[in-house]
């Protein structure tokens, strides 16, 4: 057996599943774990991806952009990984976002998001239109979340490090879709993460169930009428799954479970386990219509499909949805937001639109800084208008899908797409500007090849010898200035060319090691 699950856990599972199913469940711990990658369609479409990558790919049935891979291929050791073309993700973890049914233009919240696997999946579905607010209460974990948002080229995300209650106070009824990938006792991850198996304690179940109920309560207040949310865990305990949903439905009659159609991969919820809990004095009796709805939730079982254990519930809030056409354009939220999630904004107010109106906390003049951004755009970017509201935050310039006042009083990790920092009136472009730019949006591009090792040398931070003829300049752009470095056409970072040498601007913390 590759991993030995805790004894107390196995005893519970035997009681819940019964002898026959338990035998199959237990045997699944003899199987190797499954590894997966998901295509980042913000950067490359699935067909081009299948042709480009050297890995053997096998489709994951529940995620159109997901593939099983052989872990031995080391997917993290390829320049395309550094170009953000794919995310390495456990296959079952790709299911919740598929059920959220995100469409471009929506306001989406990922409430428990770090390190950001599901947020990058949501962002790909938004295709740059609408807004993703991605949050995690753990400050340390929001660093990885912000990095993933940046590596995967997401332009329309705000990263928060807040409690769900405080977000609910700031954004009541604001979101069309919410993902609650809840903190849980992690019983479904023992095969993937041996530490989880070693550390697991039965007390965790009750502790996490309490947290999940609080988080769901806030999520309900954040969702617009007619909106949808998906609740997911990677644990088997009914206290954290069917019982959490039953309690939620009891408290929130305006919600109903959207039935999941069971198939070869998704098994139904286990309403009978509510009774099992009640008999042990650890649950309660629920009205029959609530019990029936827990059967419409989904379970992914390691003995029935190729992935780790998960629980899924799709919940819809009754009521009229907001008119979708108002959400269609990126950044259409006004600063004088009132009486509803969306206001209209003159679409001409793009990033060259409304000027800054004061000084930031460091006393820096916003107008001056925003002018530096405009000057940079003229010199180093092509004519294309980039989306979002330019705003100053901590001395850096961001393009944000929200206006600054909407974020007042919240713990903001990134108020939007980080485009650069300003020193002595000049903007130094940020790495996230490069990763989210397409080559056609940059004034100068140097394309490296993944095949000949030059891209890896760039990713290691080396200075490259580059003939002038290799730099592709847009009309009116000279060779001097920031060069967008790409690998086979996909953005990696910045460089600066002079006299046959490319000075490497790839950040030290991102380098190939
Ligand atoms: C299952 S993990 C999320 C994984 C993530 N969705 C992904 O796909 O990469 C649960 C996360 O919830 C966070 N968390 C715990 N309590 C929270 C709370 N009260 N509010 C928001 N996030 C919380 C944890 O820090 C943890 O990062």
UniProtKB/TrEMBL annotation:
Stretches of the chain forming a coiled coil according to its record: none
Lineage: superkingdom: Bacteria
Gene3D superfamilies: 2.30.130.60, Sun protein, domain 3, Vaccinia Virus protein VP39
Keywords noted in UniProt: Cytoplasm, Methyltransferase, RNA-binding, S-adenosyl-L-methionine, Transferase
GO molecular function terms attached to this record: RNA binding; RNA methyltransferase activity
Biased composition (Basic and acidic residues): 339-349
UniProt-listed GO biological process terms: RNA methylation
SAM-dependent MTase RsmB/NOP-type domain sequence ranges: 1-318
Active-site residues (renumbered): 234 (nucleophile)
Annotated binding of S-adenosyl-L-methionine, by residue: 112-118, 136, 181
Location of the region described as Disordered in the Swiss-Prot/TrEMBL record: 319-364
Similarity comment text for this entry: Belongs to the class I-like SAM-binding methyltransferase superfamily. RsmB/NOP family.
Name by which UniProt lists this protein: RsmB/NOP family class I SAM-dependent RNA methyltransferase
Organism from which the protein derives: Paenibacillus mellifer
